[in-house]
């Protein structure tokens, strides 16, 4: 179980949290619970999320993987504008390295394809920076199966991050391709909308096992594929502990399969 750090920012993923020390404590609690994969992006805040991670955890514990993303601009609170130009991605990476206090990003992901820029150019820029030693592994996010194939023609892709949860499965074909290729699949919005958690099947399994609907939804993801790496996010230590505990529920596969 990974940790999506986005939700510790201010409302709308904009600005700093009300209490930076609370955010620091949350990150440290995740480490105490055994989480060794944090997902963030330069657009969260913007920039705030990466800064908070470094403030809380640097020097980083051995084995911690910090994955970040570049390729979305936040000119205002409600804007998420793609910018896949190679020059921008280079500036974005350099900024992330500085904020995270790293010499190399373990996993750097293109946050979204930019329809104005050939995908090969965007991924090619990441491949160039990988050859320079600034990126260890390259991932892509918000891609179709065809876009994944196009990215793989340019660089070795180790992960895909798409929206996916018990109520949103439009990326089933991408997940299947990731499983075939041994590529990690990071489902964003892994708990989905409230309607998915209120579904009768999820509620029934939760009652049967003394679990929360969110835990059932996460257990379903973990059982869905061996390449699945859920990254639920929260600003609450109690929810963090609940989410991590979902990995140990032990719900029978046939029950989860019924969903």
| Main sheet specs | 7 strands, parallel
At CATH's second level, what is the architecture? Alpha-Beta Barrel
CATH class, anyone? Alpha Beta
Following the backbone from N to C, one meets helices and strands in this order, namely EHEHEEEHEHEHEHEHHHHH
CATH superfamily: NADP-dependent oxidoreductase domain
Query: How large a portion of the residues is in β-strands, by DSSP E?
Result: 15-25%
Helix run count:
11
Mean pLDDT: 97
- What are the low-pLDDT stretches, counting only 5+ consecutive residues below 50? none
Quantity of strands, as a count: 9
Shape: globular
Computed Rg? 18 Å
What does this molecule look like?
The protein has 259 residues and is α/β, with parallel strands linked by helices. The protein has a single domain, classed as TIM Barrel (Alpha-Beta Barrel). The chain is built from eleven helices and nine strands. The strands form two sheets. Strands 1-2-3-6-7-8-9 form a seven-stranded parallel beta sheet, covered by helices on one side. Strands 4-5 form a two-stranded antiparallel ribbon. The chain is globular.
């Amino acid at each position: 179980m990974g940790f999506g750090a986005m939700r510790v920012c201010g409302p709308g993923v904009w600005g700093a949290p009300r209490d930076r020390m609370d955010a620091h404590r949350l990150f440290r609690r995740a480490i105490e619970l055994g989480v060794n994969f944090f997902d963030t992006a330069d657009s969260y805040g913007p920039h705030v999320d990466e800064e908070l991670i470094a403030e809380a955890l640097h020097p980083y514990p051995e084995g911690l993987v910090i994955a970040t993303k570049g390729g979305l601009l936040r000119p205002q609170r409600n804007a998420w504008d793609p910018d896949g130009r190679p020059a921008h991605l280079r500036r974005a990476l350099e900024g992330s390295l500085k904020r995270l206090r790293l010499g190399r990003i373990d996993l750097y992901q293109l946050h979204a394809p930019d329809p104005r820029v050939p995908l090969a150019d965007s991924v090619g820029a990441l491949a160039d920076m990988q050859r320079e030693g600034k990126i260890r592994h390259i991932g892509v996010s918000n891609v179709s199966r065809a876009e994944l194939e196009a990215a793989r023609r340019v660089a070795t892709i180790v992960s895909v991050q798409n929206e996916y949860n018990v109520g949103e499965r439009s990326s089933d074909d991408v997940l299947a391709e990731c499983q075939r290729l041994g590529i990690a699949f990071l489902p964003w919005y892994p708990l989905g909308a409230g309607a998915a958690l209120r579904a009768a099947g999820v509620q029934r399994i939760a009652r049967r096992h003394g679990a929360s609907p969110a835990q059932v939804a996460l257990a379903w993801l973990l059982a869905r594929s061996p390449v699945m790496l859920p990254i639920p996010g929260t600003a609450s230590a109690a929810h963090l502990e609940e989410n991590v505990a979902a990995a140990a529920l032990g719900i029978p596969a046939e029950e989860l399969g019924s969903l």
